[in-house]
Amino acid sequence: MRHKIRRHVRKAKYIFYKETLVDFREHLWTFIGAFLGIGIIGFINSKYFTAYENLFMIGSFGASSVLIYGIINSPLAQPRNLIGGHVLSAIVGVTMHKLIPGEVWLSSALAVSLSIVVMQITKTLHPPGGATALIATTGTAKINALGYFYVLSPIFTGVMILFIVAVICNNATPHRRYPANRNWYKFWRGKHRNPKAL
Questions:
Q1: Do residues 56 and 49 make contact, with C-beta atoms less than 8 angstroms apart?
Q2: CB within 8 Å of 147: residues ≥ 6 apart
Q3: How far is residue 64 CA from its own chain's centroid?
Q4: Counting beta carbons within 10 angstroms of the beta carbon of residue 55, is it exposed (0 to 12), middle (13 to 18) or buried (19 or more)?
Q5: Residue pair 82/163 in contact by the 8 Å Cβ criterion
Q6: 46-80: per-residue pLDDT in tens?
Q7: In terms of Cα–Cα distance, which of 57, 58, 23, 56 is closest to 38?
């Protein structure tokens, strides 16, 4: 009995140690990635939007940065989720705004809830996608005037900037690897098929 207790105590101490261990290289690359990703998007968007809209836009990208630079092994941070989640949510958000332009509360509620369901169905769940859908319905007149162009720019272009920076920064050291699945883009290959046969 004492042996079991000691073993559990040792295991708990080890877990606590690992969880509280500060890895300065990890934090440095997280900082560099997030700074570059958001900095580049902010710089580009500042040329086309007012300061208020620029800050509002980056809200969902800031949340994505936490995932793709800070928790890079999370399934929610993978490219399929990052790109698909934002793009599909943007399409849903713009569609809801066009279908129900006068009732912001209703279009916003539908945009967020439907975007979550669409992401679940397509296996592209990315929590910041909900914010992207919400921005499409509650944004200023300039954002609303973009219509479906909002999906292409700034959403798709911004997400691709975040992704490219993530690939560069998250693979800069041997102990970081992103994306977790190097064949993530080969969506046409079924899991049951033998890749060597293709």
A1: no
A2: 94, 98
A3: 3
A4: middle
A5: yes
A6: 776 666 666 566 689 999 999 999 999 999 999 99
A7: 58
SS (HEC) of 109-176: HHHHHHHHHHHHHHCCCCCHHHHHHHHHHHCCHHHHHCCCHHHHHHHHHHHHHHHHHHHHHHCCCCCC
Give the separation between CA 94 and CA 114, rounded to whole angstroms.
Answer: 12
Residue type, 182: R
Global model pTM greater than 0.85: no
Q: How many CB atoms lie within 10 A of CB 91?
A: 19
Chain segment 147-194, per-residue pLDDT in tens: 999 999 889 999 999 999 999 999 988 888 899 887 766 655 655 554
Residue type, 166: A
